[in-house]
Specification:
Elements lengths: L13 H15 L3 E5 L5 E5 L2 E2 L2 E2 L4 H5 L32 H15 L11 H10 L5 H14 L3 H5 L3 H8 L6 H16 L6 H5 L6 H12 L8 H10 L9 H14 L5 H14 L18 H4 L16 E10 L8 E6 L11 E2 L10 E13 L2 E11 L9 E5 L10 H9 L7
Parallel strand pairs: 5-9
Antiparallel strand pairs: 1-2, 3-4, 6-7, 6-10, 8-9
Helix pairs in contact: 3-13, 4-5, 4-10, 10-13, 11-12, 11-13
């Protein structure tokens, strides 16, 4: 991000300047370091690389003198570090105050009407932030509304039975979130009041740095930057950050930028404005730059790099697994029951949930025909699920597999794969 005042480092000799650049280049390949200027934003310093590509080091840098660009027309006095090559395009017109003002004005006009934005209740905001982790807004909305209708306070959720907790979360995935949320509800209930600052919220089960910052800023007005994936993408483009977005050092730089830009009087709205911008305009692919209220301060757009940034190094390809899910209807029960497998409370995955059995669970079952198939991804594994209608005859089942009335499926915590299979078989309604 452009910066007006960059305080010079202590004068260095030519040998020291060259030595420092060589050391940095040896570690990172580009010889980069960062400083904090007048507006508190990380400033990119690169002795041998201009933001738009390689460029020779200036003569002043080689001689150890501070270099000031004669063509710069910044707001206020500018002092450049000897090794600093600032971006030429928009540094002179960057104004943090105007950036905040334009972004918040756009947010006030264009923000989506979401139920958790109509309240300052910390519990309601807490629930929404937990549900939104790794989950799209459109998927969360019906779950959030059902959840808040049933558990409008931490006390109500703290005393909910485990089966009800899992049932209300079934289909959202990442089920440890539900258990952590209930553990947090128990702790809040015991304290008698919701914690009212970042550090206390951060201590709740399941509340990471982002979640605590979001709740503290939105519900209590605490000046904490909440940096999620959308915010990282926006700031990576605004600052033309070319390092791997998943690297901890890159994230730390962008978090510092977010904190420095934060609006002191409207921190919650500013955090949500950056998130909204990333979710609706500054998209991962084909960003809608003409609609962006802060496009004039975007280094990536100025350099023509908005489609290339941010940089994310590729991850290993997900594993492929074939699953065979058996739909076994109860003989002699008027086809009013289906065989389900209950996962124990100490199961390493989906503890307490119900799943359809697979051939290894009922080795005496006989497949009759294939109903269909679907794909389901869990973290880094792609599951190709074949759904088979099967028969067990009069054979008994073990204690893990149980005949379950079809009428009770709606209230059971079914795994997402089981629900998809039962919907495919026409035995359960689609959510």
């Amino acid at each position: 991000m452009p910066n007006y005042n960059v305080a010079p480092a202590p004068r260095a000799t030519s040998a020291q300047a060259v030595g420092a650049g060589s050391h940095e280049a040896g570690r990172g390949g580009q010889g980069l370091n960062y400083s904090i200027g007048r507006v508190g934003l990380p400033v990119r310093r690169d002795r041998h690389h201009y933001w738009g590509g390689p460029t020779p080091a200036p003569a002043a840098a080689r001689s150890g003198r501070h270099h000031r660009r004669s063509d710069a027309q910044p707001h206020g006095k500018v002092r450049y570090h000897a090794n600093c090559r600032m971006p030429r395009i928009i540094q002179a017109k960057f104004s943090p105050a105007k950036f905040r003002r334009e972004l918040l004005a756009w947010y006030d006009r264009n923000k989506r009407d979401l139920p958790w934005r109509r309240t300052r209740d910390p519990w309601a905001i807490h629930v929404s932030e937990i549900m939104l982790q790794q989950t799209r807004v459109a998927a969360v909305l019906p779950y959030y509304e059902r959840f808040m209708a049933r558990y409008s306070s931490p006390r109500a959720f703290a005393r909910a039975p485990d089966s009800a907790v899992l049932a209300c979360w079934a289909g959202l995935g990442y089920y440890s979130r539900a258990r952590n949320l209930q553990a947090a509800a128990v702790r809040i209930t015991q304290a008698g009041v919701y914690p009212q600052d970042y550090d206390a919220i951060r201590a709740l089960p399941g509340a990471g740095a982002y979640t605590a910052a979001a709740i503290a800023s939105i519900a209590f007005g605490e000046a904490r930057a909440a940096v999620d994936g959308n915010v990282l993408r926006v700031l990576a483009r605004v600052t033309a950050e070319k390092a791997d977005l998943r690297a901890s050092q890159t994230r730390a730089r962008l978090e510092a930028a977010a904190q420095a830009l934060l609006h002191a009087r409207r921190p919650g709205d500013f955090n949500q404005a950056l998130m909204e911008l990333g979710a609706t305009v500054c998209l991962p692919r084909n960003p809608r730059c003409p609609a962006c209220p802060v496009a004039g301060w975007c280094e990536a757009r100025a350099l023509g790099l908005q489609d290339q940034l941010p940089v994310k190094l590729s991850r290993p390809r997900p594993a492929e697994v074939v699953r065979r899910l058996l739909v076994i209807l109860g003989k002699g029960r008027g086809n009013g029951a289906v065989l389900l497998r209950h996962l124990a409370a100490d199961s390493p995955r989906l503890a307490g949930f119900w799943e359809l059995p697979e051939p290894e669970h009922v080795p005496r079952a006989r497949a009759l025909r294939e109903i269909g198939e679907f794909r389901h991804t869990i973290v880094s594994t792609n599951h190709r699920c074949r759904v088979l209608l099967a028969s067990l005859g009069s054979r008994a089942v073990d204690r893990v597999c149980k005949w379950t009335p079809l009428a009770s499926l709606a209230s059971l915590p079914l795994s997402t794969m089981a629900r998809k299979a039962l919907v495919l078989a026409g035995l359960a309604p689609a959510r």
